[in-house]
Amino acid sequence: MRRPIVLILLISIIISFVYTKNYKDKFYDIEGKYIEVEGIIKDAIYKEYYYEYEVGNFLIRDFNKEQKINIGEYIRAKGIFKSSYNMVIDEFDYGMYLKSKGIDGILNCEYIKSSKSHNIYSCIKNLKNSLEYVIEDIFRENSSFINALILGDKSELDINIKEAFSRAGVSHIIALSGLHIGIVIYIMTLIIGRINNVVKFFTISALILLYCIIVGFRGSMFRACIFSFIIYLAVFIQREYDGISALCLVGIVLCIINPFNIYDIGVQLSFLATLSIIYFYNKIDKYIKCPLVSTTLSASILTIPVVYYKFNIISNVFLISNVLIVPTVGILIGLIFIGIIFYYIKVNIIYLMISKIVCFIIFYIKSIVFYLSDIKYSYIEFETVSLKLVVLYYILLMTYMIYNERKTVKEQLNEVRGYN
């Protein structure tokens, strides 16, 4: 076998699946009981009907909304506990989703008390608040879109925009992924310039790590960060690397850290898109000779069935929308970061000029997205989906990939033996 690590990954996924299906929830015995939870808030979301705080492996929901408690504060809460085990909402396995995020259950609190605390979470929150304030001050009416684009915060993003991006097949643009990490690395490389390679490597690695911590070091971002680090390390030490092997290593690590990661839709799409690009890009580009089109088509080969099954939708205009929009995203993110830098060093004329360019690019992106998503038959929406069809698709595709791998191994052996 040319890549034994692929087999190790498949075994890891099978073990994770068996483990999660036979998982005995240690908190199931306290289901429906009145308990107390205390700790530091790692994340907070302020929704319309309740405030939600992540403390340890629990979500605490405050429906009274008497006070907004910030990330980093120490809280003590009491209420009724609901385990994430077997938590299904409208046929959606919400419990598995929570488990993939490392959440063991939800506490619907009746009493909550907080106290100030200084820790890493409060520092990260202060830094994120500072960035959000700057974005709001520079970009005004586009701040919610930019927060989604570079900070992964879609809480203030209009639902119509989310749906339009999904129908146009470009929702990955406002979902933090390897695309964003790659753009950030490229921008940092340009800014740093030709400094010592060792300093450049550690500087970029530290900044990428900081960026991932700020936006949330989980799931797809973890995959993107570690995968990018492996690739950049290979470039730094001037060694060849195998993309599929590197990706498989990241997948194995994700399974070890949390076996429930296999149910995270973000991880699934991010992993499959990367694998699809690595495996199919050269085969497609050999005929099309257009990198952007080849990348878009290759990424869709392994991801379309998941989008079909999970979201009941397939975009018919994804190729056009990606070709028209993706090239502008790199420019847009670069200009946003440059604008933020000049804001902090108080060069007003430059960041004000940049803000106007950014607003124009966002207007262009939204115009394209809304136009394409509103075209008749721009997308197909399914009332029901077939798991058998998805499984058959992947079986046929895996058969082709295995055949192709065996063919490649045979050709390599013939070359070693001196055959043509």
UniProtKB/TrEMBL annotation:
Domain ComEC/Rec2-related protein: 149-406
Keywords, sorted A to Z: Cell membrane, Membrane, Transmembrane, Transmembrane helix
Protein name: ComEC/Rec2 family competence protein
Topology of the protein relative to the lipid bilayer: Multi-pass membrane protein
Annotated TM spans: 169-191, 220-237, 244-260, 266-284, 291-311, 317-343, 350-373, 385-403
Locations listed in the record: Cell membrane
